[in-house]
Every structure is written in structure tokens, then in C-alpha cells.
Amino acid sequence: MPRISVTVDGIRYDEEVEPRLLLVHFLRDRLGKTGTPIGCDTSNCGACTVLLDGRSAKSCSVLAVQADGCDIVTIEGLAAGESWHPMQKAFHEEHALQCGYCTPGMIMAAIDLLHDDPDPSEEDIREGLEGNLCRCTGYCTIVRAVRRAAREMSQEQEGAAAS
Amino acid sequence: MIPASFDYVRVSSLDEALETLREQGEEAKVLAGGQSLLPLLRLRLAYPGTLVDLGRVEELRGVADRGDHVLIGAMTTHYDVVASPVVREHCPLVALATATVADPAVRHRGTFGGSLAHADPAGDLPAVALALDMEFVVRSAAGERVIPAADFFLDYLETALAPGEILTGVRVPKLGPGWGFHYEKFHRTAQAWAIVGVAAAVRRSGGVVEEARVALTNMGPTPVRATAVEQAVRGAEPGGNGGAAGGALRAAAERADEDTDPPADLHARPDYRRHLARVLTHRALLAAAG
């Protein structure tokens, strides 16, 4: 069985995996990272989105063996201790969820979006999150949350640059 | 669902990949970005004996300006294709269409060559390859051969690639000045598979359409070149005297569904696809000639 070495949320794991094991099952079943949910069987819902070497990826469409040597961040790796990531905070404050099932993937995809475009318009956000489906909110509050997080993250950066 | 069992070989060079394919025979399947293949494996629609993973073959990645054409490495991700200044400058139609493929997470991993070799009739890139007369560079243990786009797509999910062959890159001819481009598609939001798509390139001189290339996505088991439209639109004056000019493009677009064989599926019936092809072709011509 192939042996892989991956870093997940800052911790390194060396594991033997069956080639057919999907990354999402590796994260959930092997590492207990159940913060990353499985929402569909067709790769279109985006609920299982994680950051793979810094870029968003649907962990249902990646084999664990393909991730060998990679750095993975899940929703569980975002908060710094007790302090939430600005995107998590913005989703909370703008009520950008109801059932919460899409939220982990939505937050990971939104963080990836700001990576390329720190100040996205409403349209940019809607397009940037087109791979993530939400069946509760109608997306309006999600768009507001991403706008809010973008503002806060750019202020944080300005603050860091000034100090 | 969980895929059926398979063996997995990660190769680090093209030669190693070719050797592995030769050893494994017809049971082997090449894994590129996996964004089409993995969903198929999960639904158990494919049962390869061995996956040969090209993910770490660096020589197959990247975009190069080769004078009269641009060479796009087969393992270049959609994200990198869209971001490439060379692609944007010399092959804007490729950048436009690739930006509509699936969603950002899929574009981070899915590859240019993988999409073309998968040859899904609802995929966006095959029609663009056909419209631009791209050339497919293919390697096997026996050497290299080049397949024109017009000969590459044979049937539903079937290409001219033989067992033991690997698509290494695609040559995109530079069209030169005077061309306008557009890719127009109608799709449901999730995953963005085209119900129908139209790739159009139009060359104008003095306000008159001199040459047009139009190809259709998902109007048959393979992408289709809309040759009737290409001929009918020649000589049209899109910018001239208002209604009559718009009428010439519309009249040409009315021929978009000639010689097509659109499928029926849960998204659309064939007659609706024919209607879409005509409407979207008109829009694509207007945008490309504008």
C-alpha cells in the first residue's frame, strides 16, 4: 500500500493509504477531521472544499495518494486558538448560514477567492463561489459576509503594515 | 461512493509514464488532474486496472510562445492557462473559454490536456480546439506524432489516442491581427457543463467579415464545426447600416444546427438544443465581430 506524508492543519501525518481512498475520506475517517463534510456524490456541491498547497480543491475529487507531500488546510485549521479567522467571524456576524452544511466549503472557497482578489465585487464573489452550493441562504448573506471579511482582512493588513 | 480498487503508479517523467503504460497494457489509464476521471471512478462508471499519475511530470506543464503558435503543455492547469499572459495575448479564445470551465476549485486541478483527452461533448475546450485548428502532440514508445483537431475527436469520450499514447501538449496557431473572439454557452450553474456552447472567431477587414470559424459544444457526440455558418457569414457587414447588418449575422446563425446530432438528456431535448445553437451562435458572432 502506498505511504503518504501530508501536513494537515499544521500537523504532519505519515499514513498508508489504499490508492482508491479519497482525500475527503482520509481527512474525515482517518484523521477525524469531520469539519469537512461530504455534501454530494457528483462533485458539484463544494462542501468538501479544502486548501491544497494554498489553493481551493474539492477533496472528494482528489485521491489521498495525490496529496502526498502537500500542505492541506481544512476549516478546522483556520482559527488561531480561540480567535476565529476573519472569514469565520464575518459568516457568523452576517448570518451567512442556516443549516451550516455548506459553510466549511464556502469559507474555504471564499478565502481562496480573496487570495486572488482582495476586494471582490458582488458579482466577483458570486462567480468565485459558483462551485459551492447553498440551499438555505439564497447567497445574499454569504456575499455580504465575504465583502465584510475582505474589508476586515485588508484593514488588518494595513494595520500590520503601519505598525 | 467509493471507487473500485485499482493500482496506482506515480511517475516523474514522460519516459517513465510511457514505459509504465507499455508494461500495464490496456488496463492502464492516465490520471491528469482527475477532475473528470475521479467523479467517474466514484460513480463506478470506469474500472481502470492501474492509474498512471502524471501529476508530478513537470515537463508537461507550462505555456511556451513558439513563434507561429503557442504550445500549451498537457498538464497545465486551467487556472494557469487563464493566468498566462502568452495565452491571453495570442489565444484569447482559449482564455475566454477556459475561464468558463467548471469552477475555481476544479480549475486549480483540472488540466488543459486532460479535458481534451477526456473529450466530453459537454466540455468547453474541444469546440475551441476545433475552431482554432489546434494540433495535438502525442507521444508513445514509438515516437511522436501530431494529430489535427479535426481528426482527434472520434466519438463520445473517444479520441484518436491509441493505448500507450500520451497527449503531451497542444499547439494553438496564432491567428494574427484583425480577429475577434467569443465563447458563448448556456449551462446550469453547478459545474457549468455546457448544455450548448459556441466558440467563434471572426476576422473583419474594412467592416466586412472576411473569415469566420465557428464550432459547437454538445451538439453531437463530438464537437462540431459549423461550416454552413462560416460560409454564410462571409461578406456580412456587422457594423454597417443597423438592422440589415444584424440581419446578416442572424441569417448565418440560423444555419448553426445544420449537420448536427444533438443529444437528449435531462437538461434538454434535441430540438431545444437546435434552438439554443442558433441563438447562441448569433450572440457569439455579434460579440466576436463587434
List the helices and strands and how they pair.
The complex is a heterodimer of chains A (163) and B (290).
Chain A: E1 3-8, E2 11-16, H1 23-30, E3 49-52, E4 55-58, E5 71-73, H2 86-93, H3 103-116, H4 122-128, H5 140-162
Parallel strand pairs in A: 1-5
Antiparallel strand pairs in A: 1-2, 3-4, 3-5
Chain B: E1 7-10, H1 14-24, E2 28-31, H2 37-42, E3 50-53, E4 63-65, E5 69-73, H3 78-83, H4 85-90, H5 92-98, H6 104-109, H7 112-118, H8 125-131, E6 135-140, E7 143-148, H9 149-152, E8 153-155, E9 158-159, E10 166-173, E11 179-187, E12 194-205, E13 208-217, E14 224-225, H10 227-232, H11 242-253, H12 270-289
Overview in brief:
The complex is a heterodimer of chains A (163) and B (290). Chain A has helices spanning 23-30, 86-93, 103-116, 122-128, 140-162; strands at residues 3-8, 11-16, 49-52, 55-58, 71-73.
Largest sheet of chain A: 5 strands, mixed
Compressed to H and E, one letter per element, the order of chain A equals: EEHEEEHHHH
CATH superfamily of the largest domain in chain A: [2Fe-2S]-binding domain
Give the overall shape of chain A. Answer: globular
Beta-strand residue percentage of chain B: 25-35%
Give the number of DSSP strands of chain A: 5
The CATH architecture of the largest domain in chain A can be given as Orthogonal Bundle
Structural class of chain A: alpha+beta
**Which residue ranges of chain A are poorly predicted, with pLDDT under 50 across at least 5 consecutive positions?**
none
Helix content of chain A: 25-40%
CATH fold-level name of the largest domain in chain A? DNA polymerase, domain 1
Report the C-alpha radius of gyration of chain B, rounded: 19 Å
* Tally of domains of chain A: 2
**Terminal Cα separation of chain A, in Å?**
51 Å
Counting H and I runs of at least 4 residues, what is the number of helices of chain A?
5
Summed up, the helix count of chain B is 12
Distance separating the two termini of chain B: 47 Å
Uncertain stretches of 5 or more adjacent residues of chain B: none
What is the CATH first-level class name of the largest domain in chain B?
Alpha Beta
Radius of gyration of chain A, taken over Cα atoms and rounded to an integer in Å: 16 Å
- Described by the principal axes of the CA atoms, the overall outline of chain B is globular
